[in-house]
Amino acid sequence: MLRKLFCLGLFIAASALGGLRANAAPIALDQWYTFGFRDVGSSLTSGAGFILGVNPPSIAAPDAPWTFTLSAPGTLTLLDGFSSGDQFNVTDFGSLLGPTSVPVPGSDCGGDISACLANPNISHGVFALGVGNHSIGGTVLLSPFGAGAGFFLVSSVAVPEPASLALFGTALLGLALVRKRKAA
Length: 184
Description:
Jelly Rolls, 33% strand, 10 strands
């Protein structure tokens, strides 16, 4: 009987915490991931079973949402891979960050991430992220092929060290003094 009450209590506690998603998967910063998707309206999914990206190499993304914590501001870069034509809405904790760019059909970058980033016809987006916890997901807006794969990367923005800022400030002060002397 005590065991049943304990299990019931656990169930009630888990129900009260319904906002926590059991399938949320943590990801590493500064690592490219391959994700998969299906037709229009479907969610972004795991990259398991999809061709991984190269240049730089990617690994298969776990099931979305993809969770991580930033100790400094950062960015999320998300792009379509292979044949152009797909577009995505990107979310953080279910709130819309925005859509990726509108694709121009007819281009192909294969699984080469650098080539996909450099091709303006391939849908991509770079989204600013604040300090704290994030839970990234998304949905498919356009999918002319009914399925495909894309890539994403979360990077934190490097914050200059105080010594670097002091050196930069000294350089600016020196430049101002030189300009003042030339003006006089």
